[in-house]
Design brief:
Distance between the termini: 59 Å
Number of strands: 5
Largest sheet: 5 strands, parallel
Order of helices and strands: HEHEHHEHEEHH
Radius of gyration: 18 Å
Length: about 210
């Protein structure tokens, strides 16, 4: 029994390491591009919103906290929020309108043009995240998806898609939080260490 349990650990670690290496070899530039857009969103005085269900809700709260408090460097708090945390809002909307609208109505209430919404779903098909992304587009909010399995219904609704094309939910979630940490670190890098990289975009002189 001990040998079997140990083998489970080693196989999971090996498969996770393979997927992680493959993902970042293929998507490093996309991660950097999204971090640049996050930095620009914040530099323009806008905010970043996060949403997801279950483990993805935990990731949404985790990443919002890294922005509002700090990640690795000492710097000012950055405006971000998770749409998963207010139990009164969630239960009021869920009770009156249905669980599918719990994020949509918050985006309609809080989203402003130039904000960013990050929807997290390992399937890419979570109905409440899909509706939130649709509401974001109607409000002029930049849409981001962190997904698995090819992106699902969310893929067509995202200005920026970071898809982990794998069907193993735990491994997809492990990549998601690693991506999230990198986005925090890179956003800080652009805002506080390499602000000159943002200047052409803020001045409207960046190549299209």
């Amino acid at each position: 029994m001990t040998d079997t349990a140990r083998q489970i650990v080693l196989e999971h670690a090996t498969e996770g390491a393979k997927l992680r290496e493959r993902y970042f070899q293929q998507n490093a530039e996309r991660v950097v591009e999204l971090a640049l857009q996050m930095a620009l969103t914040l530099a323009r005085g806008r905010k970043i919103m996060f949403c997801g269900n279950g483990g993805s809700a935990a990731d949404a709260q985790h990443l919002a906290a890294e922005f509002v408090n700090r990640f690795m460097m000492e710097r000012p708090p950055l405006p971000a929020l998770a749409l998963t945390t207010d139990s009164s809002i969630l239960t009021a909307i869920g009770n009156d309108y249905g669980f599918e609208q719990v994020f949509q109505k918050q985006v309609q209430a809080l989203g402003q043009p130039g904000d960013m919404l990050v929807g997290i779903s390992t399937s890419g098909n979570s109905p409440n995240v899909v509706l939130a992304l649709k509401a974001a587009r109607e409000k002029g909010v930049t849409t981001v998806g962190m997904t698995g399995r090819g992106g699902g219904e969310m893929a067509a609704l995202c200005d920026y898609l970071l898809d982990v094309s794998d069907r193993r939910t735990p491994l997809v979630q492990e990549i998601h939080i690693t991506v999230g940490h990198l986005l925090c670190q890179l956003t800080d890098h652009f805002l506080f260490e390499n602000v000159l990289a943002l200047q052409p975009y803020l001045e409207g002189t960046a190549p299209q």
